[in-house]
């Protein structure tokens, strides 16, 4: 069973998505990831986007640790329902509506996002069937919606190739945890014409 590791709701169990629809981030990987993000000083007060959210555990963890606003984006009806239950749980603990669920395809959500929408921290844990060109296209759409010092975390199988980073994003770190690999990227400065 997954849980919120730290922060205002630390130790609270999360609802999991039934069946094998999603590939939940293990508590071990989540602990290591958030330890690194805490070291970056990026979570407190951040606007967080959790794409392909599954149960929403990464976004909800961010909310527990002081993120200002969290958007969970999940298209599957069952997973989106679980996201909503976990969002309601953390919102109840926080006493405010800091976590919002969007039942939408990731591509559609990013296309509809206002030009002024920007996030400080973004998680992408796409399903295995999403191929590399589709992931790169999503990253390309996302690049226009990042705060200047944003951090993007892509989680994939350790057997998956590194994402093809589009213009506007560059990798600055990676870490392997057993069968899981995390890539960390940030906005890059594009050369002036």
UniProtKB/TrEMBL annotation:
Keywords: Methyltransferase, Transferase. The lineage of its organism: Bacteria, Bacillati, Actinomycetota, Actinomycetes, Micrococcales. Its EC number is 2.1.1.171. This is 16S rRNA (Guanine(966)-N(2))-methyltransferase RsmD. InterPro entries: RNA_MeTrfase_RsmD, SAM-dependent_MTases_sf. NCBIfam families: 16S rRNA (guanine(966)-N(2))-methyltransferase RsmD (TIGR00095). The keyword Signal does not apply. Pfam families: Cons_hypoth95. It comes from Pseudarthrobacter psychrotolerans.
């Amino acid at each position: 069973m997954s849980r919120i590791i730290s922060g205002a709701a630390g130790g609270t169990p999360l609802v999991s998505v039934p069946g094998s629809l999603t590939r939940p981030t293990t508590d071990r990987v989540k602990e290591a990831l958030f330890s690194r993000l805490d070291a970056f000083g990026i979570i407190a007060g951040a606007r967080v986007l959790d794409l392909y959210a599954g149960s929403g555990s990464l976004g909800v963890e961010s909310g527990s640790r002081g993120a200002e606003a969290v958007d969970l984006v999940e298209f599957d009806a069952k997973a989106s329902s679980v996201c909503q239950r976990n969002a309601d749980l953390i919102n109840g603990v926080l006493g405010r509506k800091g976590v919002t669920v969007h039942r939408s395809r990731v591509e559609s959500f990013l296309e509809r996002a206002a030009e002024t929408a920007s996030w400080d921290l973004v998680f992408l844990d796409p399903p295995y069937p999403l191929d590399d060109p589709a992931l790169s296209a999503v990253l390309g759409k996302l690049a226009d919606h990042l705060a200047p010092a944003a951090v993007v975390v892509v989680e994939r199988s350790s057997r998956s190739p590194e994402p093809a980073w589009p213009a506007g994003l560059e990798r600055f770190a990676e870490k392997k945890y057993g069968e899981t690999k995390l890539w960390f990227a940030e906005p890059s400065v594009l050369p002036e014409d």
